[in-house]
Amino acid sequence: MSLTVAMVLNLPGLESLRLRAGAAGLDNPVRWTYVAENEGIADWVAGGELVFVTGINHPRDEANLLRLLYEAQERIAAGVVILTGEEFIHTIPERVITEADRLGVPLLEQPYQLKMVVVSQSIGTALVHEQMLGRSREHVLQQILEGDYQSLDGLLRRADSLQVSLAAPRQIALLKLQDSEQLFTTEPAYDAERRLQASRQLLQRKLEQVLNELGDPLPLVCQGEHWIALLPTRALHQPSNREVLATALDELNCTLAPLRLFAGMSASGHGPAQLATGLGEARQALLVAQSFPERLGLCCFSDLGVLELLGAIRDRSLLDRFVDKVLGALIGDDSRHEPVLMPTLEAWFYENGNLALAAQRLCVHRNTLSYRMQRIEALTGCSFNDPHDRLNVAVALMIWRLSSPQPNRNTA
Fold first, then answer.
1. pTM of the model
2. Which residues are registered as beta bridge partners of 33?
3. Where in this chain does the record put each CdaR GGDEF-like domain (predicted)?
4. What are the strands of the beta sheet with 79-84, ordered from one edge?
5. Where are the alpha helices (DSSP H) in 89-188?
6. What is the pLDDT of residues 200-238, one digit of tens each?
7. Three-class secondary structure of residue 264 per DSSP
8. Which residues contact 323 (CB under 8 A, 6 or more apart)?
9. Which domain holds residue 258?
10. CA 5 to CA 79: how far, in whole Å?
11. CA distances from residue 125 to 11, 120, 122, 130 in whole angstroms, order as listed
């Protein structure tokens, strides 16, 4: 929950502000206001600004207004406000209105009679108020999610007073934005940081949009590179939360590359007392999503199967010893030479033992793959004709992948 363009239009004293186009973006969060004094705004906004265009310091013809509109969309601005009157910008060109609708960028008209000092003071006061409420709401949700409270009833009463409704059961989605370090190895630090922040703004806006579409939204909880979303229980005839989130991830990952977004989801139907358990489930599922990128980066706790049992083993050394006993020879061989045996084993299991498909997946000849499988059997002492040996290798491979997430393997 944050100040949105729609809320700005309803602020006391700003009744003469008028929405002219871009109603699809009315839920865009407003982070701050910015008065455009230069020819363009691309170098001056970081995302979330409500951009005011006066025409006082720079001529604003149709071409320039279109440029500002395109740059506002590119930089993820909350919206554009054009001041109109007799002296500078007389009217908003129809093409600008049409483009704002097409882009989904809220376009507001402000008469010059409405002084900027009144507008900025009203929006600034509302922003401070919403930020204070937002921090309180997020803190309450963090306490409930972490189980950090003495009295759940007391905390729920505070949540109600902050208009955070937790009466309905929720499913928890835990999302992580990964690979940000790649930006800083391929781009200058300033450009990389600006791109990272713009990506985070885009991600935040998209997740808030998803929550609004699902209905009964609760605030996102942001923890570093993680976002926690509490999703409502869906009716049987509606798309599941997983389907909705999978669509959003697919769209976002195309836009955010080389950054990659992963998501883990809890089982559904957690009440307030079980939300901490649900967050633990989502964490387990997120780890699996990162380790198994062929799942499109999304995993639900109900999908874990045997991985849930493995995750419940507290003594990590037991798992490490099992992996070393079953796969140690392969891991060691790959560390001394070109790593081909473990990727081969993964591809063979992924294709359910089909040599032709596994060879195609790795872009090698079938005879090459057959030779590698024979070498794997020799090094491990296992026979893939023995179901017990196959089970041991499969479980060891799961543990290895969970302990060493490598999303860019050839098997993806």
1. 0.69
2. 50
3. 151-286
4. 18-21, 107-111, 79-84, 49-53, 32-36
5. 94-103, 116-146, 152-161, 180-186
6. 888 888 888 888 888 888 889 988 889 999 999 877 677
7. strand
8. 331, 396, 399, 400, 403
9. 165-304
10. 7
11. 10, 8, 5, 9
